[in-house]
Specification:
Helix content: 10-25%
Radius of gyration: 19 Å
Order of helices and strands: EEHEHEEEEEEEHEEHEEEEEEH
Largest sheet: 7 strands, mixed
Number of helices: 5
Structural class: alpha/beta
CATH architecture: 4-Layer Sandwich
CATH class: Alpha Beta
Strand order of the largest sheet: 1-18-2-3-4-5-6
Length: 333
Amino acid sequence: MATPRISAAFFCPRLSKPAATQHSTKRMKPSTIKLALIQQTAIQPDATNPTAMLDVQMSACREAAKAGCHLALLQELHNGPYFCQQEDPGLFDLAEPIPGPTSERLGQLAAELEMVIVASVFERRAAGLYHNTAVVLDADGRLAGTYRKMHIPDDPGFYEKFYFTPGDQDPARGLGLIPVDTAVGRLGVLVCWDQWFPEAARLMALAGAELLLYPTAIGWDPTDDAAEQQRQREAWITVQRGHAIANGLPLAACNRVGLESDPSRATAGIRFWGSSFICGPQGEILAQANVTEPETLIVELDLARAEQVRRIWPFLRDRRIDAYGDLLRRYRD
């Protein structure tokens, strides 16, 4: 396996120097954080080392902590290959409870490194009830919150509806599109297919999220031509930059990378395109990983800049919430 490279960028300018104000308050959480995106290739677990891929993720978190990172974002379903290329009832055995082995190991690591870790787990909620769940481990090791993926795809090679039940939207129980408070700020955590839906990002922003985060597993059909592959990758980047702009928030998406074969041999597999990236509240790309290799992408990010952007682009102020009722319809017919 190739040794992942570490790439760093530093970006924390303000639009202008803010004037001193008597109404300013002391922030208990840092306004500037270092964020690491851990982009990795798949490792096939075996009987001698069933946690091989998680071990690699944890090692990368340690290296990120040495570089001064306060927050690490892992890719979607990072404990092994992307198993949803086929429908196999035996693969439900990969699921685990939360709290469970993965969240407990990562919680211990988060406490050791004093780092917030956003991870991804195939969750067994009950017999016959499973979720694709993001877990947020706070810097003291506690399980700060979870998010069960709400938009579930069912496309060739991405047969997720076979495995995952959509997450519930139940704010009273802390479920659904609810940000998670952590030592580094209020995190709006969503998962992969959610990134194509502006409503999810908007609701996280309206609940006070300071940073949008997307663990991801997306790639090309290797049989598509180069032009189609480029269109797909650019669309993925563009729609998320749009979420950042529309909500005046920084955004980070961490994707897996490399070719993963289809165990059923029904397709040519998926070439995950990597390209993990971080953009600012005006959609500006702050850093982006490569398309072929493992990489740890590190960015210094000024969370306070979002307020300066929102002052000049006050989209939340100008929303016509009285006119949007039909958004609750499937289609206006």
